[in-house]
TrEMBL record:
Family matches, as Pfam families: WCX, WYL
PANTHER family for this protein: PROTEIN PAFB, PTHR34580
Organism: Rhodococcus spongiicola
Protein name: WYL domain-containing protein
Residues forming coiled coils: none
Signal peptide as annotated in the record: none
InterPro entries from the UniProt entry: CBASS_pafABC_assoc_protein, WCX_dom, WYL_dom
Domain WYL: 152-215
Record domain WCX: where: 250-321
Top-rank taxon, per record: Bacteria
Amino acid sequence: MPKPKVERLMNLVICLLSTRQFLTAEKIRKSVDGYDDSASHEAFSRMFERDKNELRDLGIPLETGPAPGYAGTEGYRINRTAYELPDVDLDTAEAAAVAVAVRLWGSPEMMSASQSALLKLRAAGAQVDSDVDAVPVSALPARTRGSETSMRKLLEAIDAGRAVTFLHRTVPTAEFVTRTVQPWGVVTLRGRWYLVGHDVDRDATRTFRLSRIAEPVEAIGPENVVRKPPGIDLRAIVDEVTAGGSVTGTAVVWVAEGRALELRRLGSEGEVRTLGDRPGAILEIPVRSWEWTARLIAGHGGDAVVLEPESLRARVQDKLRFAAGISGDLAEVAP
């Protein structure tokens, strides 16, 4: 019986996270549980191409590069530095972005599949990180489970081409309303997960934040009826909707060299500057939400320091104090 798409994608993520080498498509086919169901090389190529696009739509940093030992052959891996997030206090949607692959890694359902994939990689001569088996799987708060379960149900419905129905509220204080949606895809943007699709009741394209969808999500109608229209850019739709708030100011932030990649994507890089004994650069970041920006910067710990404005600097210090369980002023780091 063919593997469900969600399980195959999780297997692929685990495989590409477990090595720093670029793996060829053929090695991935032999190592990842779910691809061995392919009837031919052409069928595998089509499936793998769709899966790569799915991972990129989900915001997973899939990289391509030369595969070692295979001259002129393209390989694939996930940039772990860009993929992994620091240990910070996350809200429901932000935690879901970290939780999806990490929690399944240690679950009974996935343990045998992940270990099998690692053994296959080692047998094929791929260099697997020595500490990959010891990666800690943090217990996530119960409030994150709803979004994780909802995303799994939504991806299954998208893969089957079925419509879904669920309860949704536009803001945390609003009443839940039943929505019937033809789902096109799920994307993540700035740490939050969004469903994009055609709202049947409103006859319009709509986005829904997963943290505001109540369980259960139910698939309805026949299979292979719902498909994303050609030429639709899901990420652009979410970006347009979430950018509705106007820019209220600019944050000037120092970031360490080679670190804080999420902040670098949001801002424009200016002068190179050494802070203490660490080289880095100055970023100017447009701000729509000061609270969200403070949480994002605090999540990078000592790799990001707010220079201006002072009010944002104070917010970040408060969050770092809370995370560290201390009171009083943090030691100031002079720019």
